[in-house]
Amino acid sequence: NAKKRKDFRTLTTVINAGQHILIEGEDEDNPYVAKVIRLFGDESGKQKKAVVQWFVRVSEVPLSKLKLLGREPHPQEIFLYQGRSCDDEVNAESILRPVQVKGGSYWSFWTPLCLNLLENLQVLNSDGDDDEDEFVPSKKELQSSSDEEEEEEEGALESDEEEEVLSKKSRRAAAGSCTPRSKRKTTSTSARTPRKTPNKKIPPGTPRTPRHATPSIPSRSLPARRPGNVLEEARARLHVSSVPESLPCREQEFQDVYSFVESKIVDGTGGCMYISGVPGTGKTATVHEVMRCLQHAADVDEIPPFHFIEINGMKMTDPHQAYVQILQNLTGQKATADHAAALLEKRFSSAAPRKETTVLLVDELDLLWTRKQNVMYNLFDWPTRRHARLVVLTIANTMDLPERIMINRVASRLGLTRMSFQPYSFKQLQQIIMSRLNKVKAFEEDALQLVSRKVAALSGDARRCLDICRRATEICEHSPADPFSTGLVGMSHVMEALNEMFSSAYITAIRCASLQEQLFLRAVIAEFRRLGLEEATFQQVFVQHRALCRVEGLQPVSVSEGLAACQRLGACRLLLLEPSRLGVLQRVRLNVSQDDVLFALKDD
Amino acid sequence: MSKRTAKDAHLPVGECVTQVGINQDLSSVYNFSDAQELHLLELLKRTAIHGESNSVLIVGPRGAGKTMLLKCVLRDLLEDKEAQKSLLQVHLNGLLQTDDRIALKEITRQLHLENVVGDKVFGSFAENLGFLLEALKKGDRSSSRPVLFILDEFDLFAHHKNQTLLYNLFDVSQSAQAPIAVVGITCRLDVLELLEKRVKSRFSHRQIHLLSSLTFTQYLERVRTQLSLPDGFPDSRFAQDWNDGVKTLCGDKSVEEVLQRHYNSSKDVRSLHMLLMLCLSRVSVAKPAIKPADLLEASRLCFADAKANMLHGLSILELCLIIAMKHLNDVYEGEPFNHQMVHNEFKKFLQRKSNSMYNFEQPVILKAFEHLQQLELIRPVDGSSAKTQREYQLMRLMLDHSQIMEALQKYPQCPTDVKQWAMSAFG
C-alpha cells in the first residue's frame, strides 16, 4: 500500500487505499465523495495522485434519475457512480480529509434496474480531527440503514453545526409567531435537525404553515372513461396532447438536431443552436423526440450520460427567473435569481474532475430579452467556456430574431448554427393525420385532403389541422343519421367545422344587431362619405342618424339612445371609440370595411 | 264577502308579484340554439368524464346570454353524479383579476393547492407560477381531477403582460398533463386578433357565437311569458286574472308601439327586463294589474335623456350662457370657445333688450361658467394647459343642439325672450 501524507489545517492526515475521502469541488459545503482505490506518484515523482471510485451525493443526482429510487433519499446519502465520463485520477492536493461511510450496499443509478451489491463497509480509521464532528445517527436512521440499499455518509463538516444552531433558532421563532409566514424549506445539510429539536406543539388556531407543499392536483375517484367508439378513439388520437409513435415529416430536422447534440455529447464540448419556425410546426416536439432518443442511447451506454434541462420563456415571470429554474433543474437547489446566476457561472466556468454534458432547451427565447440582454448573453456565453460542457438549444418563432433583437456580442455568441422549420405542406399535414390515426378508419379520404389543403393554405399549423379534425368528428357524431352515410367523417362535416373556426362573425353580428344599431352604422358610413374621412365625431354621425330615422319613418332618437347604440357597437368592436367620458365629442371609426357593412345591411 | 276574500288574497300576492319579477329565472327567456348548447355540454362532459382537455370561447354582445348559457350547461352537467364528483371549477373575471399575479393567487386559492393556508396563498409570483405549472404537469389524463377554468371578460386577460396566463393554460390544454377545459367569455368579436401568435396557435379555435336573431313577434311573446305567472302560483284565481290582464296588455296598440320602439333600440334582454321591472313596481294592492299607461310611463323613463334633464335644473343665467355657446357653435362651426367669447355673446343679447333683468357682474358670470364645467356640460379642450387664465381657457360644449331645444321647451317658466333668442338663427 502506497502511503502519502498531506497537510491539512496543520494536522497531518493519513490516507490509505480503500478509505473514503472528501475531494474539493465547486460547492464548498458539499465536497465530492470518493473511495481511494490506488495511490501513486506521477513520473516526476513530485505530484501524488490517486485513483478513485466516485460517489455522488443526493444533490448531484439528476432529478429524473432520483425518481428511479422510488423512495425519499436521506440528504446525506451517497450513491455509487459508474459513469464513464469522469476522470478517475485526482491530484492529492484536492483531497480534503477522510470520512466515515456507514451502511451496507451501494445503490447505483448508473446501472439501471439492478442493485449493485458490494461488500458491507465498516467504518475505517479516521483521524482525530474528525471526531469532534462525529454524529451519532438516531435510532430511526440506524433502522433504515439496516435496509439493504441504504447508507449514511458522515458529512463531517463544521458548517453543519452552525447551520443547526441557526435553523433551530429560526424554527423556534417561526413556531412562536402567529403569522404563517415561515415557509422555510429545510436545507439538505440541516435536514436531520428537526429530529433533535423537541417537537413543539403548534398552538391551535394558527393555521399550519405549508412547509413541504407538494404541487399536485387531487386525483379523481372514478377513473376516466376510455373512448367507446371509432370516432371517440379517433378524437383521442387526434388530440394535440397525445404523443405520436413517431414524428413524420420532420426526419431531416430530427437528424440534424440529433447529430448536432450527439456530437457535442460525445466530444464533451458545448455549443448553441437556434431553431425557428411559426407556431405549430413541431419545433419543441422534434427536440423532445431527439432527447428521448439520446436518453435511450445513453441508457444503453452508446453515448456518455447527460443532463437534459428544459426552460420556457413563457413559463416564467421574469427573464432572470431562467437562472433559478436552470439551477433547480440541475441541482435541486433553490436560490434567488442573482445567487443562482453566480452559482451557475461558477459551475460552468470551473473545471471539475467529472462533469456530464448538460443539454439545455430554451423555448420561446424572445421572452428572455432584457434591456441589457445579460440573460441571453450568459446562456450563449457559457457553452463557449472550456469546461462548461453545455449544449444550448434555443427555440423561437421568428427567423431573424438574432439580427432583430440581439446586440452584436450576443448574436455572435449564438453562432450560425441555425435551423428553420418550414410550415407543413398539405401532403405533410395529411401524412401527420394519417400516422396519428394509425389505421383507425374514421375519415373519408377527401375530407382529410380538404382539411390539410385548407390549413396548409392558411398557416401550415399542425395544431390547427388536428383541432379541425377533432371538431369534425364531433359534428359527425351529432349529425342526424343518414341512411346513405358511411358513418365516417365526410366533406360536409369538415366544411362545417372549417366554417365555424374560420368564418368571421362580423357580418352575422351586423345582421343580428337591432334596427337603431344598424341605422347608426349606416349613419357612420354616410358621414364618412360626406367628410371624405374615415373618422367622425359622434355628434356629426348623430345628425345623420336622426335624418335616417326620419327617412325610415321612425320616432327621432334621443342623444342618450343614440349614444347607447354607439356604445353597444363599440363593445363588440364593430366600431372603435374613444373613451366614453367624451360624450358626444368622442370620435368614431369603423372596425370593419364599409363594403362589409353595406353587404350585411343590403338584404333587408 | 267575495270582496273580502279577494282583498285577503291580494296583499301577499302583491308582494309575490314583485318577487316573481325579481326572481324569475332568466334562463327561460333565452332560447339558445340546441346545437350551441349541445356543443358546449358535450365539450365539458368530455373533459369531466373522459379527461380530455379543451378550450372554447363564447362570444356575443352584452346581454346575449353568454354567462347564462354556461350556467345552464353547467347545471345540466352537474346532474351527472360522475361529473359532479370529479370536476373542479375555477372562476376568474378579467375585471377582478387585473394581472397574472392576482389571477395565479386566485387560481391556487380556488384549487386548494397545498401552498394555501386558510385563505392565504404563500410564495412569490414566480413560485406560485412554478407551483401551479408543476401541479398541472404532474397530473395525467386518467387519474387527476379535471379542472374547468372559466375566464369571464376574456379579452382583458389578453392585455396581461406577455399573456403568460393564457399561454400556460392553453399549453396545458394541448399537452398530456392534468385535464383542463378553458372557457372564455367575451363580448369582443375581434378577440382572436388580441392573442399572440403562439397563444393563438395553442387555442383550439372553437368559438360559440351567441347572436340573437330575434324577431318582433318572438320579442312580444317573450314579454308575455316574462310577465305571466306560472301555473304553480298559490292563488290560482289571481294568477288567472293577472295572466288575462297581461294578454290584453300585450294586445294593446300603444303598448305594441312602445315595445316596438324598445325592440328597435336594443334586443338586449336586460334592458327589456329593466323596462318590465319599472312597470311592475307600479303595481299595488289598489291596482293589481299592469295598465298600458304604466308601460308608457316606464318607457318614458327609460328613454329620458340624462343631459337634457340636467338642463332643467340650471338657473336662467346658466341657461343663457348655454344658449350663447350654442350660437357660437353655429357661427364658428363647432370651434372651441372661451369664457370671454361667451360673455360677449351674452352681452350682445342684453344690449338688444332695454330691461336690465339679466345684468350680472362679471364674477357672477364666471362662477356660473365654472358651475357648467363642474356639471360636465362643457369641458376644456385636451392639451389646453392649466396655465392659461380661466377666462381664456378653450372649452367645448358637450350638448347636442337638439338637447338644448328640447330642454328649453320643458324648462319651467322660461322667459319668452330667452326662448326666442335660442330659436333665432343669428345670435
TrEMBL record, chain A:
BAH domain span: 13-139
Record GO cellular component, one term: nuclear origin of replication recognition complex
Keyword tRNA processing attached: no
Origin: domain of life: Eukaryota
Residues spanning the membrane: none
Alphabetized UniProt keyword annotations: ATP-binding, DNA replication, DNA-binding, Magnesium, Metal-binding, Nucleotide-binding, Nucleus
GO MF annotation terms: ATP binding; ATP hydrolysis activity; chromatin binding; DNA replication origin binding; metal ion binding
Compositionally skewed regions (Acidic residues) per UniProt: 146-164
Compartments (UniProt record): Nucleus
Annotated SUPFAM superfamilies: P-loop containing nucleoside triphosphate hydrolases, Winged helix' DNA-binding domain
Region listing for Disordered, in residue ranges: 128-226
Subunit note: Component of ORC, a complex composed of at least 6 subunits: ORC1, ORC2, ORC3, ORC4, ORC5 and ORC6. ORC is regulated in a cell-cycle dependent manner. It is sequentially assembled at the exit from anaphase of mitosis and disassembled as cells enter S phase. Interacts with CDC6 and KAT7/HBO1. Interacts with LRWD1 predominantly during the G1 phase and with less affinity during mitosis, when phosphorylated.
Function: Component of the origin recognition complex (ORC) that binds origins of replication. DNA-binding is ATP-dependent, however specific DNA sequences that define origins of replication have not been identified so far. ORC is required to assemble the pre-replication complex necessary to initiate DNA replication.
The name this protein goes by in its record: Origin recognition complex subunit 1
Source taxonomy: Eukaryota, Metazoa, Chordata, Craniata, Vertebrata
From TrEMBL, chain B:
Name of the protein in question: Origin recognition complex subunit 4
Record carries keyword Acetylation: no
SMART domains: AAA (SM00382)
Keyword presence, DNA-binding: yes
Protein origin, superkingdom: Eukaryota
Family note: Belongs to the ORC4 family.
Quaternary context: Component of ORC, a complex composed of at least 6 subunits: ORC1, ORC2, ORC3, ORC4, ORC5 and ORC6. ORC is regulated in a cell-cycle dependent manner. It is sequentially assembled at the exit from anaphase of mitosis and disassembled as cells enter S phase. Interacts with DBF4. Interacts with POLQ.
